């Protein structure tokens, strides 16, 4: 029996559950959650839930990050606040304090670019053809990063240059199909980090950007122009549950495996969607 959802909701409770699961499973894998939340409705003939819905349900996956990395984040916040008081900033000898500053520095590019290009992001980059092309093109970036990265640096060795480079990589994920985790992990590998260290910094860096984006878009939920509050809440809950499981699985997987499975998946999905979109089978 389907869960009751307000009549103003643009999607049903079942669709919300499916999209929440999709969001949770794909947010942290380098395969683009925003692309999947756009592709899945198109394949089943459901309405496009829109960028506001996508941004808000990411708060569920961010809750998973906050809980999974709660100790790390607590140490970082405490040390960061202490470095502000003694004016050491990112030059602090404390690794956690420096990491706090680097997370802020790394968030600046996506915050600025996201605000400047807000209208374009909401309407101009959601075509299935573009998403399919980006899925395939960025698989080459993943492959190159995994191939040439030295994988010798650990998370404690992150510096200001790394934060800037990976921060601009994160901004690329404003285009669905790129993948925020895919971009940040790739450029972390280019900077010489191990796969697990690159993934951990990617997850930590996602917190400020996704929380700010989700809170900014929250005002649109239930305003009558898109998905209602009921469906959004359901999707966010399922995104949290499956997001937590996804984090644990990926960190363990990357200790002993390459990114090859994700590269092949991106190529296959991109080609499949592009053929269907060009043939007019989905829109």
Automatic annotation (TrEMBL):
InterPro entries, alphabetically?
A: UppP
Membrane topology, from the record: Multi-pass membrane protein
Where are the membrane-spanning stretches? Answer: 50-69, 100-117, 123-143, 197-216, 228-251, 263-282
* Enzyme class, UniProt record, top EC level: hydrolase
Q: Tell me which family the UniProt entry assigns to this protein.
A: Belongs to the UppP family.
Any idea what this protein is called? Undecaprenyl-diphosphatase
Reaction(s) catalysed (UniProt annotation): di-trans,octa-cis-undecaprenyl diphosphate + H2O = di-trans,octa-cis-undecaprenyl phosphate + phosphate + H(+)
What EC number(s) has UniProt assigned to this enzyme?
A: 3.6.1.27
Arranged from A to Z, the UniProt key words for this protein are:
Cell membrane, Hydrolase, Membrane, Transmembrane, Transmembrane helix
Query: What does the UniProt entry say about where the protein is found?
Result: Cell membrane
């Amino acid at each position: 029996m389907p869960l009751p959802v307000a009549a103003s909701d643009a999607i049903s409770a079942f669709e919300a559950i499916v999209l929440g699961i999709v969001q949770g499973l794909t947010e942290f894998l380098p395969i683009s959650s925003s692309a999947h939340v756009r592709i899945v409705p198109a394949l089943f003939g459901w309405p496009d839930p829109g960028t506001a819905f996508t941004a808000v349900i990411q708060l569920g996956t961010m809750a998973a990050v906050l809980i999974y990395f709660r100790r790390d984040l607590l140490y970082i916040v405490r040390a960061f606040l202490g470095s502000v008081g003694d004016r050491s900033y990112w030059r602090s000898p404390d690794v956690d304090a420096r990491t706090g500053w680097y997370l802020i520095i790394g968030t600046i590019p996506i915050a600025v670019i996201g605000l400047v290009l807000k209208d374009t992001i909401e309407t101009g980059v959601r075509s299935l053809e573009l998403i399919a092309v980006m899925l395939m093109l960025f698989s080459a970036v993943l492959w190159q990063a995994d191939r040439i990265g030295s994988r010798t640096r650990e998370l404690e060795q992150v510096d200001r240059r790394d934060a800037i480079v990976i921060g601009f990589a994160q901004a690329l994920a404003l285009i669905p199909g790129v993948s925020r985790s895919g971009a940040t992990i790739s450029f972390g590998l280019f900077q010489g980090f191990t796969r697990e260290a690159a993934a951990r910094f990617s997850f930590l860096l996602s917190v400020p950007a996704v929380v700010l984006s989700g809170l900014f878009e929250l005002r649109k939920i239930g305003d009558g122009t898109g998905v209602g509050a009921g469906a959004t809440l359901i999707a966010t809950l399922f995104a949290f549950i499956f997001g937590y499981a996804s984090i644990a699985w990926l960190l363990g997987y990357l200790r002993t495996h390459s990114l090859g499975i994700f590269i092949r998946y991106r190529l296959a999905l991109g080609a499949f969607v592009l053929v269907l979109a060009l043939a007019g089978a989905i829109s």
